[in-house]
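ok so heres the complex, two chains, lmk if somethin looks off
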Amino acid sequence: MATDSALESKVYTKAPNSLWYNALRHLLKKRSAVVGIAMLGMLVATAILAPVIAPYDPAQILDGAKRNTPPCIHLLGCPADQPQHIFGIDGNSRDFFSRVVYGSRLSLEIGIVSVSFAIVVGTLLGAVASYGGGWLDSVVMRMMDVLLAFPSLLLAIAIVAVLGPGLINTLLAISIVSIPHYARVARSSVISVKELDFVTASRALGESSTRILFRRILPNALTPLIVIGTLGIATAILDAAALSFLGLGAQPPTPEWGLMLGEERNNLFNAPFLLFIPGIAIMITVLGFNLLGDGLRDALDPRLNH
Amino acid sequence: MLGFLVRRLVLVTPVLLGILFITFALGRLIPGDPCMIALGEHFTPEACAQFRERTGLNDTILVQFLHYLGNLAHGNFGTSLRTSQAVTGIVLLRLPMTLELTICAMLFATVVGIPLGVFSATRHNSAADVLTMITANFGVSMPVFWLGLMLAYLFAIMLKGTPLWLPPSGRLTPGTTVPPLTTTFHLQNLSGLPLAIVTFASNMVVFNSLITGNWPVLGDALRHLILPAIAVGTIPMAIIARMTRSSLLEVLGLEYIRTARAKGLSERVVIYRHALRNAMLPIVTVVGLQLGTLLGGAVLTETVFGLPGVGTFLVGSIFARDYSVVQAFTVIIALIFVVVNLVVDASYAYLDPRVRPQ
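and the predicted structre for the whole thing:
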């Protein structure tokens, strides 16, 4: 069985993109990954089409709207003479549905921007450390150990405390806290390939160190970085929501889901729907990235014999 | 065993120094002139020069760092700008609540998570297994504070009037007080470190009422801790369950398990005595690492449930730019995290003789 599939893959191996092609095939075979992709697809569509989907401006205070009005959906028997607000009205007389829809933009932006920044900085640090070796390696990696020794959310809170509350500072704090993970992965990938023959060959051909590092070595570190990056987006979204909930992240009237929960948390008793919806939105987003990340890990893992 | 511990301690020293340096550096990086912030409206150039001399701001960074270390070693965390209290006192008052919550959450996470993982692994690919893992996936994707709000809604509002009702906020029912241990045990003439330890223990309400046999207060405190502990413990519980499942599945595929079964041992003995012990190593690692999530989650959840711990105070201090408090809490929690993971490391040696150095 095992030899058969090994033979098969030898005979039918396709041109350079076969790794990605195979990965995609395996990914689509996994039901949970497909569910994750579908959830994220819907979310991205919502984010892009937000101005079309949302009936109101997310920050617009509606004249004559009563605060904390429960959802009113015409199809479900809400009188036609009342304006339709399918998620109700929030504590500041704004259309809650529009706010939740626009929130998808922020969460995706937060997750992707902070993780991209962390991946770029972390990969550079890890690659330079392992490629340089010696004291450079020790210094950089001990610094990473120290950052990892803090509970991540608390370090992020401490960084925001220094930089001052705000969305940009939150992004920065979350990035800094996650840099060590990427640095470690990049470092171990570089170490595992830097002594291989094709690297020696490039060196013999007279390629510069920078070119070898960026064109020959780093592409090999890409797969693990993609996997932990996808899972990292989930964590980043959760952490950003937490900081915003505490009032340290996004500031009003930004339609950020964590901030919305923070603003409405005293409405638990009289308008609980204002607290159900943003939490479910965060959960769906995070679950989507988690499922996709787990799926990618299985699909891209060469050790697993599919 | 002792040598092993000493070696680990030596390895962890640079990390500890790094933590101390980072918290020290964060304190120096706050924008604005520290003497302007401290003196406020009493600011004059002369007063500022005096202040700088008195607080050592004129020394080199290295000397200042050594001063900071010296102060920490004496348990001196400075003074809170916001409340003018000694930060040490605030820590002794607030940290016990957070630790109590963290410990309860940790208990919930392991006591529920490990059996859930075992349950799932032993019914591999069954409907029960799939359902458990789907639930675990939802569990790791929920914001802690939101879960806290939802639990408060379910137990404090929807179940109001039923015996399942649980209080949504506070540490004890208003009006309930716990006498400090110093009065209970007539320890009024303690001072220094022993006093700090007794005060700390005394402020851990569950511990205090447990050793003094104050059952009504103990019950009340535990009832107030159930919801926050479940909220904080759910993400780690889900992660522990997933780890237990995959680790146990790996071990269950090994030859010696087949041998144990062939010997005619009961499935219970095979799983709990033979398989689980070998599967424990990655689980213990995850439990140790989850402490970071738990401490962060505790800080968040306190604000939801109005518990008088580190979290509620920390957030207020950040807005008041009361940096000595933020610094103290950060360094203490990071140290707790490092020490616990050191203990986890040491427990490998207990669990797995292969790790034990000869």
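quick notes: Residues 96-132 of chain A form the longest helix (37 residues). thats all i got rn
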